[in-house]
TrEMBL record:
<dbReference type="InterPro" id="IPR015421">
    <property type="entry name" value="PyrdxlP-dep_Trfase_major"/>
</dbReference>
<dbReference type="Pfam" id="PF00202">
    <property type="entry name" value="Aminotran_3"/>
</dbReference>
<dbReference type="InterPro" id="IPR015424">
    <property type="entry name" value="PyrdxlP-dep_Trfase"/>
</dbReference>
<dbReference type="GO" id="GO:0006526">
    <property type="term" value="P:L-arginine biosynthetic process"/>
</dbReference>
<dbReference type="InterPro" id="IPR049704">
    <property type="entry name" value="Aminotrans_3_PPA_site"/>
</dbReference>
<feature type="binding site">
    <location>
        <begin position="222"/>
        <end position="225"/>
    </location>
    <ligand>
        <name>pyridoxal 5'-phosphate</name>
    </ligand>
</feature>
<keyword id="KW-0663">Pyridoxal phosphate</keyword>
<dbReference type="GO" id="GO:0003992">
    <property type="term" value="F:N2-acetyl-L-ornithine:2-oxoglutarate 5-aminotransferase activity"/>
</dbReference>
<dbReference type="InterPro" id="IPR050103">
    <property type="entry name" value="Class-III_PLP-dep_AT"/>
</dbReference>
<feature type="binding site">
    <location>
        <position position="279"/>
    </location>
    <ligand>
        <name>N(2)-acetyl-L-ornithine</name>
    </ligand>
</feature>
<protein>
    <recommendedName>
        <fullName>Acetylornithine aminotransferase</fullName>
        <ecNumber>2.6.1.11</ecNumber>
    </recommendedName>
</protein>
<dbReference type="GO" id="GO:0030170">
    <property type="term" value="F:pyridoxal phosphate binding"/>
</dbReference>
<keyword id="KW-0032">Aminotransferase</keyword>
<keyword id="KW-0963">Cytoplasm</keyword>
<dbReference type="GO" id="GO:0042802">
    <property type="term" value="F:identical protein binding"/>
</dbReference>
<comment type="subunit">
    <text>Homodimer.</text>
</comment>
<dbReference type="InterPro" id="IPR017652">
    <property type="entry name" value="Ac/SucOrn_transaminase_bac"/>
</dbReference>
Length: 403
């Protein structure tokens, strides 16, 4: 189609998104070019998806090779790429069984259904309550958005699925007050992403696991955003002394190709007997071949160790910007999931900083109205970090100057 512009979006698309005026056309590594040929540094990573940047050779080779073999066969059959990827995930984690879907929301939908089914099979149908946390985010289906703890995403979609309660993240007493023998699962992000890049205390995470054990409830870790090397380990739970019963993964799993997975143990997986759950495209050969290639690149010491060094570089540069302009109350996060929280003076203005930075040639994200979020490629170079944060500094200077 010729004559495509941002106005085209308004005429053809449902208005549930408000995309930027700039339309990206192609990318390579951590650089993006728009339809006018302007170049940008990508520090957003497609919201923690493009973990290997854009058009990584291993991904291009995997998709091209598989595209010439087999795309889809339905789950009446299995396929080699799916089995190979499942084995890799099992070998690298606590998991013994895998279910494939197409997105994080679908992986979570599967996890929540499995948790209820497992409780029903083993303890009876009364044990059906799910507890999650305020400011959590678990997807956009009606079930996952109800488990997520942000009211703005559920307004107008009532009545919502029942049997869901919310505790306060990083506050063990608030969970203690809610958990009971009716609880079938506690669902949490090991780092809250959309909720503001909140890293919990080690004691809190340990306490959640202990409460789950006391009440025969499953612990579900939503690692859709924190997984696949994002924190410097393959999954964020590996930084803790805690192992979940179910883990969900997506976003970076396919590096930009839609795929999600739910990982669990043999014991829990038994409840998904033939016919209990499914997905037409889940585990398709194309997605699994790409994800397998992404996995092979990320799950190496050099990539995982490199994440920590890049984290330090981001932190130092953000601190230097803050010393000059005094806009952040703190810089937090783990690995390459970083949040710069705006101080009282600039509260609510994350979008202004994001827009101003885009004008200066770099992409970043928000995590709510008060936090700038960085989730770049795990392979972003030092030079690209410098360029991206130089653009941010110019954007900050502009917003501060206009305030």
């Amino acid at each position: 189609m010729s004559n495509i512009s941002r106005d085209t979006f308004d005429s053809v698309m449902v208005p549930n998104y408000a995309p930027m005026q700039m339309i990206p056309e192609k990318g390579k590594g951590s650089k993006i070019w728009d339809t006018n040929g302007n170049e940008y540094i990508d520090m957003a990573g497609g919201i923690a998806v493009n973990a290997l940047g854009h058009c990584h050779p291993a991904m291009v080779e995997a998709i091209t090779s598989q595209a010439n073999k087999l795309w889809h066969m339905s789950n009446v059959f299995t396929n080699e790429p799916a089995l190979s990827l499942a084995q890799k995930l099992i070998d690298a984690t606590f998991a013994e069984k895998v279910f494939f879907a197409n997105s994080g929301g679908e992986a979570n939908e599967a996890a929540f259904k499995l948790a209820r089914r497992y409780a029903s099979d083993n303890y009876g149908s009364e044990k059906n309550e799910i507890i999650s946390f305020f400011q959590g985010f678990h997807g956009r289906t009606l079930f996952t958005v109800s488990v997520g703890g942000q009211e703005k995403y559920t307004q107008g979609f009532e009545p919502l699925p029942g049997g869901i309660k919310h505790a306060t993240y990083n506050d063990l007493d608030s969970l203690k007050a809610l958990i009971s023998d009716k609880t079938c699962a506690v669902v949490m992000e090991p780092i809250q992403g959309e909720g503001g890049i909140i890293v919990p205390d080690a004691e809190f995470v340990k306490g959640v696991r202990e409460l789950c054990d006391q009440h025969n409830a499953l612990l579900v870790f939503d690692e859709v955003q924190s997984g696949m090397g994002r924190t410097g380990k393959l999954y964020a739970y590996m930084h803790t002394d805690v192992t979940p019963d179910i883990l969900t993964t997506a976003k970076a799993l396919g590096g930009g190709f839609p795929i999600g997975a739910m990982l669990t143990t043999d014991k829990v997986a038994k409840s998904f007997v033939v016919g209990t759950h499914g997905s037409t495209y889940g585990g398709n050969p194309l997605g699994c071949a790409v994800a397998s290639a992404v996995f092979d690149v990320i799950n190496t010491p050099e990539v995982l160790q490199g994440v920590e060094a890049r984290h330090e570089k981001f932190k130092q540069k953000l601190s230097a910007i803050n010393e000059k302009y005094n806009v952040f109350s703190e810089v937090r996060g783990q690995g390459l999931l970083i949040g710069a929280a705006l101080n009282e003076t600039y509260k609510g203005r994350a979008r202004d900083f994001m827009n101003a930075t885009l004008e200066q040639g770099a992409l970043l994200l928000m995590a709510g109205p008060n936090v700038l979020r960085f989730a770049p490629s795990l392979l972003i170079s030092d030079e690209e970090i410098e360029l991206g944060l130089a653009a941010l500094e110019k954007g900050v200077a502009k917003v501060v100057g206009e305030s």
